[in-house]
Task: inverse folding
């Protein structure tokens, strides 16, 4: 168990390409942190620097108050779960889990005991003597988790562990992961590009873009008060509607707002904070997507397009003219660089 | 394309059987010839069915050899060939595994230069470098010795290249998982790389064993001591017995005996090879 600290960490490749710049944050012991961002934003590089698989070119990584910059991955007291599982194909499930422990010189009875416990925990007992090739994707990923658990590391690292699985299995394993975190009480750092995974798993989310940290916060903080238009558009499905102030829609929204900051670039509003009202801003429905529990209504206000989320059972037709009402305090304001401005 | 037409089936079988007969006929003739007394093969037509001298011929060959061809027992020559072939095979596989490991997994100065140097030796087979190699072996005092037979043939650019290509297909994550599991380079090599290379090793073993077994020019050059003669040289000596009557029965017997070990290697290793192919999955 350990806390983790990144101090102005940076990674520049030999060709001068910078993957991560000046990243600083602290992770408390037992926290579940999710690094999220679009592909190429440096989140995997960050994880690999924490793991020791990637050299740190700037700054300092500390695990449990010990700087680990030059420490080999095997000596950092971490465990990692990879996207493609990275199981040793020629070893059985038992062998895969035992390998790291044997390399530490752990006595056999203890290795066996740990494997038995992890296998029970992950329901892998019937498969212990099978090779990875005889397992399904979900089972393989469980084995990879088992390999991490038996080491009893202070930090667990996950590199998009669910991306290779189908949607149903992903939801199931996501719940198992959350349960695992609760039962182990260890520090988890999890990389994903899937914002739903990030929202549902994380204690705190670190959202990255182009090698920089955009915002750090709890999922609801990020959702309610995004620090930038990037975060606003990344978190949430459908994302926040971000409208340029020069457009008709933004002007109509701002006209209803009492206090408006100056120097605005964009105005944002979450899809569920709008509703169809008797009076409000006139809009035209361009598309209706009934999803069962909710309905996504695509709207057009002048030249601006936006999405509204409304309850189920609404009979709406494309082409209809409606009035859109906005909840009080729903608007978010961004300056011309896309950073948040408060009213 | 899977078709089921009787006429086509007959035709394909005729072609295949013709091919097999064409390939097997010389072997059959050799096998039959080795069971006849020498004179029977001087007359025309040559026999097409087994004679009664088979046991006598083979025991003469294996125990005492043929006096007209130096009188070295074939068992000695077979053992020599086996030593040489195994030495070359094991040596080649070991050296190329290690050099491919170095080239793929370590970043050292002039890495690519070394790789290309190894690769360039593909252009220099034994026959091309035979004079300087002979000179080196002679001045090291390795003439007429097993090391002299084996060591000059022990490096293989082909095998190094093959292992390099294979190592490069092993996912980086596997290497990283091993690093996190505290496997140092040598552990990684023994515990992960070597077992994963099993199929490639089996395939190379077949090819290299036959290569080593069939070596003719090199052993012919550096051995003058009859106790170090190999089977392939033995066949050659029997064909050139000089003014005497050709001893076809013994020559053919030697050829048959010389064929057995490579055939065995193919049969045994092929099963392992196929098993490895079916089992391995990255």
Result:
């Amino acid at each position: 168990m350990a806390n983790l600290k990144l101090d102005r960490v940076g990674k520049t490749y030999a060709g001068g390409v910078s993957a991560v710049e000046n990243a600083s944050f602290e992770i408390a012991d037992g926290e579940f942190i999710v690094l999220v961002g679009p592909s190429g934003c440096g989140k995997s590089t960050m994880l690999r620097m924490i793991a020791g698989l990637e050299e740190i070119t700037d700054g300092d990584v500390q695990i449990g108050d010990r700087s680990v910059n030059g420490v080999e991955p095997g000596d950092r007291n971490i465990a990692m779960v990879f996207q493609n599982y990275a199981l040793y194909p020629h070893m059985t499930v038992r062998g895969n889990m035992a390998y790291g422990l044997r390399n530490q010189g752990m006595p056999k009875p203890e290795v066996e005991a740990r494997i038995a416990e992890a296998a029970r925990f992950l329901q892998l007992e019937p498969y212990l003597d099978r090779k990875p090739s005889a397992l399904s994707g979900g089972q393989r990923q469980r084995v990879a988790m088992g390999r991490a658990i038996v080491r009893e590391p202070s930090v667990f690292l996950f590199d998009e562990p669910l991306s290779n699985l189908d949607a149903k299995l992903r939801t199931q394993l996501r719940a198992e992961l959350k349960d695992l975190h609760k039962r182990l009480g260890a520090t988890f750092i999890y990389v994903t590009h899937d914002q739903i995974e990030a929202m549902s798993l994380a204690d705190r989310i670190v959202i990255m873009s182009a090698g920089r940290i955009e915002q750090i916060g709890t999922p609801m903080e990020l959702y309610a008060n995004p620090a930038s238009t990037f975060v606003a558009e990344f978190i949430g499905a459908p994302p926040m509607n971000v409208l340029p102030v020069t457009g008709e829609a933004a002007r109509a929204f701002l006209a209803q707002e009492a206090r408006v900051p100056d120097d605005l670039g964009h105005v944002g509003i979450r899809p569920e904070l709008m509703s169809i009202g008797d009076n409000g801003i006139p809009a035209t429905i361009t598309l209706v997507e009934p999803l069962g529990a909710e309905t996504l209504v695509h709207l057009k206000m002048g030249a601006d397009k936006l999405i509204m989320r409304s309850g189920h059972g609404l009979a709406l037709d494309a082409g209809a003219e409606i009035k859109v009402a906005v909840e009080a305090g729903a608007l978010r304001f961004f300056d011309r660089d896309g950073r948040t401005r408060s009213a | 394309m899977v078709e089921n037409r009787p006429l086509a089936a007959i035709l394909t079988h005729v072609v295949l059987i013709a091919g097999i007969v064409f390939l097997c006929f010389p072997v059959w003739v050799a096998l039959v010839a080795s069971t006849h007394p020498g004179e029977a093969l001087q007359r025309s037509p040559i026999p097409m069915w087994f004679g009664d001298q088979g046991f006598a011929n083979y025991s003469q060959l294996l125990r005492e050899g043929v006096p007209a061809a130096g009188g070295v027992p074939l068992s000695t020559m077979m053992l020599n060939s086996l030593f040489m072939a195994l030495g070359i095979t094991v040596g080649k596989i070991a050296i190329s595994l290690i050099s491919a490991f170095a080239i793929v997994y370590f970043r050292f100065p002039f890495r690519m230069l070394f790789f290309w140097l190894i690769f360039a030796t593909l252009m220099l087979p034994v026959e091309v470098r035979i004079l300087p190699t002979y000179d080196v072996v002679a001045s090291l005092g390795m003439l007429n010795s097993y090391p002299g037979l084996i060591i000059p043939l022990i490096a293989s650019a082909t095998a190094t290249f093959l292992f390099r290509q294979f190592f490069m297909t092993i996912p980086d994550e596997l290497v990283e998982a091993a690093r996190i599991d505290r496997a140092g380079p040598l552990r990684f090599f023994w515990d992960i790389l070597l077992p994963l290379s099993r199929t490639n090793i089996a395939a190379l073993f077949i090819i290299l064993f036959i290569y080593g077994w069939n070596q003719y020019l090199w052993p012919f050059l550096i051995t003058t001591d009859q106790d170090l003669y190999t089977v392939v040289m033995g066949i050659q000596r029997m064909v050139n017995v000089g003014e005497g009557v050709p001893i076809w029965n013994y020559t053919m017997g030697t050829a048959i005996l010389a064929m057995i070990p490579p055939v065995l290697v193919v049969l045994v290793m092929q099963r392992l090879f196929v098993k490895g192919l079916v089992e391995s999955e990255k």
About this structure: Residues 74-105 of chain B form the longest helix (32 residues).
